[in-house]
Amino acid sequence: MRLRLLSLLMTFSALAHAEIQTQEIPYTAADGTRMIGYYAYDDAIEGARPGIVVVHEWWGLNDYSKRRARDLAELGYSALAIDMYGEGKNTEHPKDAMGFMEAALANADAAKGRFNAGLELLKAQPQTDASRLGAIGYCFGGKVVLDMARQGVPLDGVVSFHGALATATRAAPGSVKARVLVEHGSEDSMVSEDDIGALATEMVKAGADFQFVSLPGAKHGFSNPNADAHAGHGLDLGYDKQADERSWADMQRFFETTFASKRL
């Protein structure tokens, strides 16, 4: 009886400690900038699992991008919200956000180096299956993950949520190795119809495995519950619960299919 009770207590203790684990991990980009990553995984899962990089909105590495890393961990992924600005900085002010974003995108090689530094950090985690890797991004981050796909960064799939679509350097034929999913709000005033058309043409010419989803009635920032508050700065933003949930479900199916194919 005592052995059975002890066994039950040990089982209960293990279950009690099985939860989403998180930690901030400092790292350094190729340009010498000190970065801060936010890592999340489910310790109830044994062994390595696919890894997904999360790239923040133009506000920087804030609570929203960290929450998305936890959400991915709950789905069974090894997830790292990376830092594209340095020192983990973030802001609530559009003027500061614009300055941070412009500085991060001023040099395409430096931006790629910062992304790759985060990707390498994710790969180094013992919970990550480095043979199965993806990335998601929001707003500014959506552009970043699309640019990484354009440049042939070794990822299996990327998902852009209300991301900027325009680029100075289009993908060359055969350069896009990752599957690409774009979740776009039909009422996103920050992305033009020309941008949408140019992206579709670019992906076709590049021979990419590309999906574009237009979410009816959704504005820029549709996935972030804080978008309505940010709209108070005079920005055309808005949270859309239906679009948020649909796009997240689309992402789940996308990665399930993408990573399942790696086992074949």
Automatic annotation (TrEMBL):
Pfam families: DLH
UniProt keyword annotations, A-Z: Hydrolase, Signal
Gene3D superfamilies to which the protein is assigned, alphabetical: alpha/beta hydrolase
GO molecular function per UniProt: hydrolase activity
UniProt xrefs under InterPro entries: AB_hydrolase_fold, Dienelactn_hydro, FrsA_esterase
Listed PANTHER family: DIENELACTONE HYDROLASE DOMAIN-CONTAINING PROTEIN, DIENELACTONE HYDROLASE DOMAIN-CONTAINING PROTEIN-RELATED
Name listed for the protein in its UniProt record: Dienelactone hydrolase family protein
Species annotation: Stutzerimonas nosocomialis
